[in-house]
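User: Sequence in, structure out. Go.
Assistant: Echoing your sequence, followed by the structure tokens.
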Amino acid sequence: MRRDAFLGPFTLLIAAACTRMPGRPAADSQVVRPEAITAFEPLYGANCAGCHGENGRHGAAAALADPLYLAIADDATIRRVVSNGVPGTAMPAFAQVAGGMLTPQQVDAIVAGMRQRWARPQTATACAAGLCPVHDIGVPPYSAPGEGEQKRGAAVYQTYCASCHGAGGRGGEKAGSIVDGSFLALVSNQSLRTMVIVGRPDLGAPDFRGNLPGRAMSSDEVSDVVAWLSAQRPQVAGQPYPTDARAGNEGGGQ
């Protein structure tokens, strides 16, 4: 028998065995580089769900799976917030150009996925649910057209909000305080405006139409109540309460 005739099959056997060596990864098990992931589910789960909830609801931050929110915030607005965050608040920047981890394509995938899954087409069905096109039901715009007025805002608060949040916004039987200094230090005026307009439906908080039956809030009224709320924001976030300050001074003298 020729030697090369024997070695040929033997060599093939060894090569085949090497491809099945213990610990050798399969061809389809290669790790995908993070920047190559463009599917909505893993991107949202890794970057958004921790604050906004697993399915866009019931998180510590605003619900994203909200057709009303998606009706007033266009793609450019959502893309800007995801990319750059909101300085001075708990919303960080996620785009690589702003110090985050996401590429422009990944940011676009998150925005498109939100719109595809959670926006409600402006059809007769949507109107039946109270979500007709924005101009048909007078939804206040996402951005304030002008500055609100604090004094008018106090009256607006009393009309639309006090029944739940109590006198002066310090909390009532139905809802907690909305003038807490720590809370106001972590939200922007735009966040307050968005919250007043869309509510927190996942937590039972009404939107701009449900605070007073039969009387929706106007854009100016939203601006005014935001001006009143922002006036309650502490000038120095985290500044100790007077009793804490006294205790600190006493301790430092010992």
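User: And one key feature?
Assistant: The chain has two domains: 34-128, 140-231.
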